[in-house]
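COMPLEX REQUEST
Ligand: zinc ion
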Amino acid sequence: MKTLNVVVWNEYLHETKNDKVAAIYPKGIHQAVADGIKKLRPEIEVGTATMQEPEHGLSQERLAQTDVLLWWGHMGHDKVEDRIVDRVQARVLQGMGLIVLHSGHFSKIFKRLMGTSCALKWREANEKERIWVCNPGHPIAAGLPEYFELPQEEMYGEPFGIPAPEEQVFISWFAGGEVFRSGCCWRRGNGKIFYFQPGHETYPTYHDANIQRVIANAVAWAAPQGSWEAVMEAPCAKNPPENLPEK
Ligand code: ZN
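STATUS: Structure written out below.
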């Protein structure tokens, strides 16, 4: 079986500007997420990319070899170059999986693929979050209890400005009373997309075993299926209009 190539992308700004975040994620959020995947799925090839690298670490060549891309961004959304967003979108339509984490709900790539506001309610008050599995048979929920808790997370609340998810895997409750569709699946073209809400930078969320399980499951779920490579050739290039049979 072909080795799955995964890239964890991070804007990598909070960790370099805020000591509290740097203490939780000394090698960056991207490395913590990558380490969690590698721990549970050692057979997967996991690399990282950050906004500071040339082409944000997402060259055409690298994206062409990427099966699943994970995305963490927050304060740098506007600094992501549109040509890179175009490139990522094209790869998702071809079949690359995309997992959008936490504040990535407002990233250019997620808003582009959803086509809606992606707005939500939020509050940073060190609240407990209880994440309920609402689709126990879904592969992203494999091996999880019926619910699990994070002692502290940022509250994200409804209404969440997304198109109706094609599959709903998790729904979260916060100590302040709000609920949120915290794990949602869509397809765009041949690509699978999963949004997962936990992961505020000032909490050790990506060190949590259940969160790592969800992300590793989501990577396997989002892997391209079937002969998606064939889609990379534009069909009209082979059959230009002049070659069509006359009516
Ligand atoms: Zn946050």
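REMARKS: Helices lie at 14-17, 19-24, 29-40, 60-64, 82-94, 108-114, 209-222, 235-238. The beta strands are 5-10, 45-50, 68-72, 97-101, 121-133, 147-157, 167-174, 179-188, 191-196.
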